[in-house]
Amino acid sequence: MPKISSDTLWEQAAAEVHRREAEGGGEDGGETVSERTVFLMGSKAGGKTSILLRCLDRDEPSKPTLALEYTFGRRARGHNTPKDIAHLWELGGGTSLSDLVQIPITPVSIRSLSVILILDLSKPNGLWVTMEKLLQATQAQLEKVSSQAQQAQKAKPGAKHHMPVRSAARVLPKDYPDRELISPFPVPLLIIGSKYDTFQEFDSDKRKVVSKTLRFVAHYYAASLIFTSIKTESLMSKTKSFFSHLAFGLDRGKSVSCDSSKSLIVPAGYDSFSQIGSPPTTDVDITTLHAKNPKDLWKKVYERVFPQENTSEQRELKDPAKDPQYSEPQIDAMRAQKDQELDQYKRDAAKSWKGLELET
């Protein structure tokens, strides 16, 4: 009986493409098409879709993301050349649907995967908890998939067309700032602070806390950081350069800005802990915080300035059908009616069973 492969059709197709690339660039010997995957996640209603559409030059209205949505972008390298493809996944619902990271992060996609975390600067009281939960969920899935891929490769040592496996540990250049003190994210990571137009109206001390904290987090994960607003063309142009760098391998530009009084633009490797300095603690005594490590210290200082919102509401909205942003009045009314009918049926059924028990 022939052995049935457990690989999906997508994984088998990707393996075949890489086998042909290794043998000489495809059947016709021409230039091969590059395929990359970019996974976007972040604050609920934080402007993820709007930013993505602008980066893709799509002039269409943005709609709330339903759970997890897929689209793609294409870009030609030159005249009469194949178009490179970017597979784009967007996670909706903030942190409530973080379990869905397992769909875009697979043994196939991990080889060319980048992650974009979009945080709503206008809502700093939900920023740290959103960032922490999404990065933890994504990193756990990356490590799981990387481990599975390595085990599968060891199980078939004689296979001729293995795909290269990306390690869960990202290797940085030897001269990378603070190389021994940071914990690089397993794949390239871009942190985007959205709604900068609202954020710049904040008190300067509060802006400084948010800016320095995100600089610390970005440097700790060896990530790039940029603040943007869809209402400011110059900021969106720079954001698009960072996006295109991840999606198509284009140059991300040379702009750098670490001034907390302006929009931050900090490419990975352009910052350091010495430049960032210590957490802004005008009203906080660091010695009373009992932090376990530097990241925990920054978290505790940040949460003293911006107490994080209770996540119990997010847990209650785990079902997207109960989320107000997806409301459909007619459908919701019918659903409520059916729920009432179901409850009544359950009560009637319970009475019937009690009656049968009494008779016996």
From TrEMBL:
Pfam families: DLIC. GO terms for molecular function: dynein heavy chain binding. It comes from the Eukaryota. The keyword Cytoplasm applies. Residues 312-322, 335-346 have a biased composition (Basic and acidic residues). Its main location: cytoplasm. Transmembrane segments: none annotated. Gene3D superfamilies: P-loop containing nucleotide triphosphate hydrolases. One of its GO terms (cellular component) is cytoplasmic dynein complex. Keywords: Cell projection, Cilium, Cilium biogenesis/degradation, Cytoplasm, Cytoskeleton, Developmental protein, Dynein, Microtubule, Motor protein. GO terms for biological process: intraciliary retrograde transport; intraciliary transport involved in cilium assembly. It is found in: Cytoplasm, Cytoskeleton, Cilium axoneme; Cytoplasm, Cytoskeleton, Cilium basal body; Cytoplasm, Cytoskeleton, Microtubule organizing center, Centrosome. SUPFAM superfamilies: P-loop containing nucleoside triphosphate hydrolases (SSF52540). Residues 1-33, 309-346 are annotated as: Disordered. The keyword Cytoplasm applies. Belongs to the dynein light intermediate chain family. This is Cytoplasmic dynein 2 light intermediate chain 1.
